[in-house]
Amino acid sequence: MTRIARYARLVAHKGRGGEVAEHLLAAADGLGGDPGCELYLVNSARSEPDVIWVTELWRSQADLDASLARIRGSKAVAAVMQLVREHELVELDLLGGKGPTAAESR
Amino acid sequence: MTRIARYARLVAHKGRGGEVAEHLLAAADGLGGDPGCELYLVNSARSEPDVIWVTELWRSQADLDASLARIRGSKAVAAVMQLVREHELVELDLLGGKGPTAAESR
């Protein structure tokens, strides 16, 4: 079982970054009880508040896929996408480090 | 006290990404006992193994500054910089989410 790490970068329409962040923080609350989701941290870029970065860490691709299947086509996703003019994913392989679960991934 | 979140992106010279990662994993081990460092996760980009991303979370700017002061001018830093042809920092404000310490940051 291989962890999935990724960053999502969302660029909101001008002035809407705060709303995007609120939606994503609500999504994070919804993930609170999901053992497959190990990190879901919502950040804004220091000098660009309309640029939101999410740090994600999932126990496995299957856990990520299951979570995505649960929200696919939802009103919550549509609401975020309406506020966003650009989005990208940076897909990563976690090598290790200091963190709640990093040691197990080595 | 405000948390400092950031991503560091390092592009290694061709074929040297693994060595860069090894240095950063050693740095993470050195941070194991530093309560100011809450996350230091070393990742490689999924499709570009010479691109290394570090996810960092620090308790405060003072903690980050103290850590940087300890390693400034060190051989370890020089060794990494010799292997790297490009580096950038994405500076973030942590808004919250799911993670070891995210709840406190809201």
What can you see in these coordinates?
With 106 residues, chain A is an alpha+beta fold. In chain A, helix 1 packs antiparallel against helix 3. Chain A has helices spanning 17-30, 61-71, 75-83, 102-105, and strands at residues 4-12, 37-45, 48-58, 84-98. Chain A is globular and about 35 Å long. Chain A is built from four helices and four strands, in the order βαββααβα. In chain A, a hairpin with a 2-residue loop joins strand 2 and strand 3. The first copy, chain A, has a four-stranded antiparallel beta sheet. The longest helix of chain A has 14 residues, at 17-30. The A-B interface holds A 5, 7, 21, 24-25, 28, 31-32, 37, 39-47, 53-55, 57, 90-100, 102 and B 5, 7, 21, 24-25, 28, 31-32, 37, 39-47, 53-55, 57, 90-100, 102. Strand 2 of chain A pairs antiparallel with strand 4 of chain B.
Helix content of chain A: 25-40%
How would you describe the shape of chain A? globular
Give the oligomer, counting copies of the same chain as homo and different chains as hetero: homodimer
Number of helices of chain A: 4
Structural class of chain A: alpha+beta
Secondary structure: elements and pairs:
Two copies of one chain form a homodimer.
Chain A: E1 4-12, H1 17-30, E2 37-45, E3 48-58, H2 61-71, H3 75-83, E4 84-98, H4 102-105
Helix pairs in contact in A: 1-3
Entry keywords:
homodimer; 106 residues; alpha+beta; 4 helices; 36% helix; globular
In summary, what is this structure?
The structure is a homodimer of 106-residue chains. Chain A has 106 residues and is an alpha+beta fold.
